[in-house]
């Protein structure tokens, strides 16, 4: 990665915004003050109409595109989608990525110092919801002088935030791009999340969430949680194609050591994740997923719940996504159609499972680009000047894996 990389926004640096106005959370608690870390790419136009907010999924953060000076080989998590000439074209759009409250990459979260105690929040950090994130993001937009977003978008939990924007701030968002998302979690998904949380809280090093003071970390629990989650992000066909039933030695060892390549791969992913993520943040993010249910207050009537929305919608699903399968996206579409909203829907044929929303797929990228080309025309951001660039990256989650794993 370097400054000459085609379609890259180049070197970027995080920015920080502090808020002293208390934020009353959905769960009844209040954050007296907080900080948000964010990055921007492209330029805000004169009438401030070309802003696109990119919302991140469970393990994402504010670093959406480009690279940091101290990590030039690690681009942002949606670098294949965001940049000059890419689907989210920074020649025309001002793109904002923000680390959500409760996160572990700079915004106020469990590892942050609580000013009231001088100690890390730990277990005292309140549970936050998608609604809380959207409220805090709206304040950041106020700070940036953006009255109305051209679009909010994201995949998975990010798509849920884009949906929530259309409900909580219908006059502040023109379009929502809801990708690989669902109107609420299925029972199975809530079950997956709870198993992951139990892996963390039952780790002897968890200490009720106050492990910071103990100078330890529940790495084993977080590792198991990630291994479980990772299985659900990929399709069975992809895992089978990549690993099959390959074993690392010449024959079965008839023991519980790592034998199959898939075991080695999952442990590698778990170890890597546990080195960079916070266990309390994992708990908070999965609970936010569980709680998301806009139709809860309308007795399950999602069409009625979406009534306040005024935005146009692009809803995208992927054929092999079994965590949020296409029928869940179609439920969103059906509700929007029933409510007379403007909605475009596409089901992308992709073999990668839920994580397909992060990957290169020419059809998918062209679809997003075409939709945003129309948005650019609508907000006066002009026409695309370059040929569309589709990333050229390999499957991000499998980068760096070469069979290396500690038993």
Q: How would you describe what is shown here?
A:
The protein has 407 residues and is α/β, with parallel strands linked by helices. It has ten helices and 14 strands. It has helices spanning 130-144, 157-168, 187-201, 219-233, 236-243, 261-274, 279-291, 302-305, 326-338, 362-379, and strands at residues 15-19, 23-24, 30-31, 34-41, 51-54, 82-83, 88-89, 94-98, 113-114, 119-120, 151-155, 175-179, 312-318, 342-348. It has an eight-stranded mixed β-sheet, sandwiched between helices. It has a two-stranded antiparallel sheet with strand order 2-3. The longest helix has 18 residues, at 362-379. The chain is globular, with a radius of gyration of 21 Å. It starts with 14 loop residues before the first strand and ends in a 28-residue tail after the last helix. The model is unreliable at 393-400 (pLDDT under 50).
List the secondary-structure elements in sequence, H or E: EEEEEEEEEEHEHEHHHHHHEHEH
- What is the beta-strand fraction? 5-15%
The side-by-side strand order for the widest beta sheet comes to 1-4-8-5-11-12-13-14
Whole-number radius of gyration?
21 Å
Shape: globular
Descriptive terms for the model:
407 residues, alpha/beta, eight-stranded mixed sheet, two-stranded antiparallel sheet, 10 helices, 14 strands, globular
Topology:
Elements (H helix, E strand, L loop, with lengths): L14 E5 L3 E2 L5 E2 L2 E8 L9 E4 L27 E2 L4 E2 L4 E5 L14 E2 L4 E2 L9 H15 L6 E5 L1 H12 L6 E5 L7 H15 L17 H15 L2 H8 L17 H14 L4 H13 L10 H4 L6 E7 L7 H13 L3 E7 L13 H18 L28
Parallel strand pairs: 5-8, 5-11, 6-7, 11-12, 12-13, 13-14
Antiparallel strand pairs: 1-4, 2-3, 4-8, 9-10
């Amino acid at each position: 990665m370097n400054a000459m990389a085609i379609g890259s926004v180049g070197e970027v640096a995080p920015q920080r915004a502090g808020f002293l106005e208390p934020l009353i959370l959905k769960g009844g608690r209040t954050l007296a003050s907080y900080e948000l870390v964010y990055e921007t790419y492209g330029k805000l136009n004169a009438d401030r109409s070309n802003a696109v907010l990119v919302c991140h999924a469970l393990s994402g953060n504010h670093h959406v595109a480009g690279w940091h000076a101290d990590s030039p080989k690690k681009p942002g998590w949606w670098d294949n989608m965001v940049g000059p000439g890419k689907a989210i074209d920074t020649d025309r759009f001002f793109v904002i990525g923000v680390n959500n409250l409760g996160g572990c990459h700079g915004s106020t979260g469990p590892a942050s110092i609580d000013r009231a105690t001088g100690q890390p929040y730990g277990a005292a950090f309140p549970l936050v919801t998608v609604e809380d994130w959207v409220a805090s993001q709206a304040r950041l937009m106020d700070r940036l002088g953006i009255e109305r977003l051209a679009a909010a978008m994201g995949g998975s939990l990010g798509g849920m935030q884009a949906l929530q924007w259309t409900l909580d701030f219908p006059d502040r968002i023109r379009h929502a791009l809801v990708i690989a998302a669902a109107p609420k979690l299925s029972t199975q998904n809530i079950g997956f999340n709870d198993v992951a949380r139990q892996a963390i809280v039952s780790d002897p090093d968890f200490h009720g969430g106050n492990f910071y003071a103990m100078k330890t970390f529940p790495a084993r629990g977080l590792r198991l949680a990630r291994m479980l989650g990772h299985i659900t992000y990929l399709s069975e066909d992809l895992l089978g194609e990549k690993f099959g039933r390959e074993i690392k030695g010449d024959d079965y060892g008839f023991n519980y050591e790592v034998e199959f390549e898939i075991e080695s791969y999952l442990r590698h992913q778990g170890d890597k994740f546990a080195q960079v993520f916070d266990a309390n943040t994992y708990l908070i993010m999965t609970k936010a997923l569980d709680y998301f249910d806009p139709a809860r207050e309308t007795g399950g009537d999602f069409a009625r719940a979406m009534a306040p929305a005024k935005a146009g919608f692009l809803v995208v699903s992927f054929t092999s996504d079994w965590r949020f399968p296409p029928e869940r996206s179609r439920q969103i579409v059906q509700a929007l159609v029933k409510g007379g909203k403007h909605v475009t829907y596409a089901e992308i044929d992709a073999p990668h499972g839920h994580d397909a929303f992060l990957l290169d797929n020419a059809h998918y990228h062209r679809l997003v680009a075409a939709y945003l080309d129309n948005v650019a025309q609508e907000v006066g951001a002009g026409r695309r000047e370059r040929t569309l660039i589709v990333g050229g990256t390999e499957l991000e989650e499998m980068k760096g894996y070469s069979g290396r794993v500690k038993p």
